[in-house]
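Quick log. Single chain, no ligands specified.
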Amino acid sequence: MAAFLLSLVMVFGVLTLFSAFLTLVTWPRRHELNAKPLKLLIAAGTVFIFAVVGLFFTADPYEMEVTGEMTPPSSVDTIEEEVAFHLEEERNSPTGDNIEVMDLNLEDADQGVNIALTLEADDNVTTDLLRAGTHITSARLMQRLAEIDEAEDIQLTWEFFVEPDQEASFYQEMMYLEMHQENIQTQNWAQVDSEDVPEVVDAYEEDPAFLEED
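-> predicted structure:
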């Protein structure tokens, strides 16, 4: 919900500025144009204000630390079921409602199991919002999955759905993050910002295209 409201703020913020400029330029002809630019300004501004208010009353979309339920019910027996439990709990958070899992792989490690998830990156208004949202969701998922006793390394791969104009659509790897269970549990996530995530995790890779400024 918070990600949706943030998108509305961005889109209708731009639309409000544009309609304000259009209203100013066409003001002498407002009667001839039946005040259409002014009506657009009022409509866009109203949506923008409601989105800002809604975002204000929604849980902080940049909350990095997980504060929800972390203990699975007694009916959960397998690692796969524990992973599913934590994914579902995170989907109920303000920033996790669009989590889509493409693949889950469990690999034996020296002292437990490496949990590797491939997820679909959520489309967003700008590259910066996409990157920040992915960092936040990754950090929160790692905190949850690190609660699994057998977990050793948590590996998250994010893929972005690409739809070229003249070619077949495909998934492209956008980001990879890896972190050891002990490092996840000892990290003070309340003091971590989204832009700090690449330095906090044990391994980080990002497609160069997503390093470009919008």
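Residues 2-57 form one domain.
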